[in-house]
Amino acid sequence: MNYQSIRLTRDSAQVARLTLARPEIQNALSLEVTRELRHALAEVAADDQVRALVLTGEGKSFCAGGDLKWMQTVLSQSRDQRIADSRPLADLFYEFDHLPKVVIGRINGPATGGGFGLTCICDVVVASSTARFSLTEARLGLVPANIGPYVARRLGLARARRYGLTTQFIDAAQAERIGLADRVVAPEELDRAVAEELDLVLSLPVSSIAATKKLFNDVIGRPPRECMDYTAALLADAWERPDAAEGIAAFLGKRAPSWKVTTG
């Protein structure tokens, strides 16, 4: 696919980088951007070598949420069309959330509305000290609908209500305190901090990354007793993969493991 609004590149065979590339409108989202992002995610998901995806924005902003020109066209649509057009965006967030790779958010600037939601679906969030965050939908008479499940899960219900109902801005330091960001660094240190997180990820096998991410998605909100059969089977599956034998042998041999590129 010839991408117009995003860039999908490789830092290495094991690291992909997805950049929102509409800096003139703060990397705002539209249906076309959504289509391109979903196509790019499918490419990354299908590549067994990739362990991590770095998500970032071009220019001074990470993502300003919905493109207002696109949103204006929604006013003239029928209810059925609005629902139909909303679904691809909901699918996008779901596909990000279930990508069998580590998603590292390189939050280079303001992240509002849908950009706030994209932050919440990242597995690791490294933010510039210049970043600011806000759930801005209520200011437009709207609701943070498609991103709501991911915001509430990341922040917890009480904080999701606070920020969704007040639309107040959160600076980077506060984002780190409430768990929206995992690390906050000076702008010039952003790439170094992302590289440090990538070093941790690249020491792990693809199979464990995918299975661990699926595990947490599957068990969240369920009583532990209901998860016992599922987790026992998942662990049995892990033992049967070559990565387990290699990992244990490497640990006992005090050497670095040699992971095979298999997802099992």
TrEMBL record:
Keywords: Isomerase. CDD domains: crotonase-like (cd06558). InterPro entries: ClpP/crotonase-like_dom_sf, Enoyl-CoA_hydra/iso, Enoyl-CoA_hydra_C, Enoyl-CoA_Hydratase/Isomerase. One of its GO terms (molecular function) is isomerase activity. It holds the Pfam family ECH_1. PANTHER family: ENOYL-COA HYDRATASE (PTHR42964), POLYKETIDE BIOSYNTHESIS ENOYL-COA HYDRATASE PKSH-RELATED (PTHR42964:SF1). This is Enoyl-CoA hydratase/isomerase family protein.
